[in-house]
Amino acid sequence: MAFNKEPSFQHGQAAKTAVLYCNLGTPSAPTAPALRKYLAEFLGDSRVVEIPKPIWWLILHGIILRVRPKKSAAKYASIWTEGGSPLKVFTEQQAQSLGTALQERGHSVTVRYAMRYGQPSIPAQLSALKAEGVQRVLIVPAYPQYSGTTTASVFDAVYRWGLKTRLVPEMRFVNRYHDDPRYIAALAQTVREHWATHGQAEKLVMSFHGVPERTLQLGDPYHCECMKTGRLLAEALGLSKDQYKLTFQSRFGKAKWLEPYTEPTLIAMAQQGVKKVDVICPGFTSDCLETLEEIQQEAQEAFLHAGGEGFSYISCLNNHAQWIEALADISLGHMQGWDLSAPDAKALAASRERALAHGAKN
Ligand SMILES: C=CC1=C(C)c2cc3[nH]c(cc4nc(cc5[nH]c(cc1n2)c(C)c5CCC(=O)O)C(CCC(=O)O)=C4C)c(C)c3C=C
Ligand SMILES: [Fe+2]
Ligand SMILES: [Fe+2]
To answer: Where does Fe(2+) bind (predicted)?
Structure first.
């Protein structure tokens, strides 16, 4: 096995630290060819679709990648911004803001982002950090709730890169922050701010991305972690059980996914006489296709069509200052014991130590 080329080893280098904030990824353009490339990588990941590879390969390449790219491209086109895909725009902003927040707290930490599927890829970003002399990396997935389909897939990409690397940096991994008080407080703050400007609806619907129900039976903690986030958010907002509803969206394929499904629940609510709903997607740290198109456009239309009168979508955490501070706290919590002082402070300390040792000898 060949290992990636290493830069020459340097003695006495101060250990630099980095945070790699990893999100799902998104197509490079709202076009069918770009979608085909993105979906082939995403849906070709056996963490995401757990069907025996040869059978799934035939279905994916023979059917799905012939039909879905065109349909999905049209959906992406409806949310595309000047800066590109919203997921990319927000992820980039979050990484930059996190870097600034850590710097303002006096820590010397490089912050970069990477995408599990598409660009900038996890291996490319890890290699770039190493080339900059980074020796310690904290992997922070953009997913508050752990799932094998998402969080573990990010870790797979890191491990795979490590398998080809001679001098592996010291690594730490954040598995989850679904019940972190600072994440919950940031979510609650976005809801309160929304209520302050738009008023409070009769019900708050908390819609999480779904996963196949089978993964729950196989031991994936995702469902339980979503439930806990929902309960804690409701508690933080002082909502009783009949004032909120937790649902799962984005079903893919024919299998049973986690229930209740978001859109049918909203339709049933409207039919039962609920006039106004607020909808939040707490499992998504950035707005993306699944929130802006599937919820803000599609689910809204379905609710209003079924007799609802008001549908108010609450934006994701995105670049909210309280979320960035929460992310800084969470990251620092996982970097305990790592010296995060600035390189010149480290050099000064080293030269003081040398002077002391010199003095002691004479
Ligand atoms: C937030 C956590 C996510 C989990 C868990 C998750 C599981 C999961 N997703 C699919 C299939 C698709 N997801 C798609 C988009 C998408 N998914 C997430 C997040 C989670 N997915 C995000 C943030 C996005 C949006 C990306 C963007 O570019 O904005 C898509 C692609 C869109 C489409 O073609 O409709 C698919 C497909 C599965 C099968 C799965 C778990 C098994
Ligand atoms: Fe997804
Ligand atoms: Fe979707």
So the answer is: 209, 290
CA distance 309 to 300: 10
ipTM: 0.92
**Of residues 154 and 351, which shows the higher confidence score?**
154
Pocket test for ligand 1, best of 250, 262, 288 (most atoms within 8 A of CB): 250
Is 259 annotated in a binding site? The answer is no
* Mean pLDDT score, 6-29: 91
Give 359's pLDDT tier (boundaries 50, 70, 90): low
List pocket residues of ligand 1, CB cut-off 6 Å: 24, 26, 39, 48-49, 68, 72, 85, 87, 143, 147, 149-150, 209, 211-212, 250, 252, 283-284, 288-290
pTM: 0.94
**What structural domains does the chain harbor?**
16-30+80-176+321-345 (3.40.50.1400), 181-314 (3.40.50.1400)
pLDDT score at 360: 53
Identify the pLDDT of residue 362.
43
Measured N-to-C along each axis, helices 122-131 and 151-163 cross at an angle, to the nearest 10 degrees, of: 50
- Edge-to-edge strand order for the sheet containing 203-209? 244-249, 203-209, 276-280, 310-314
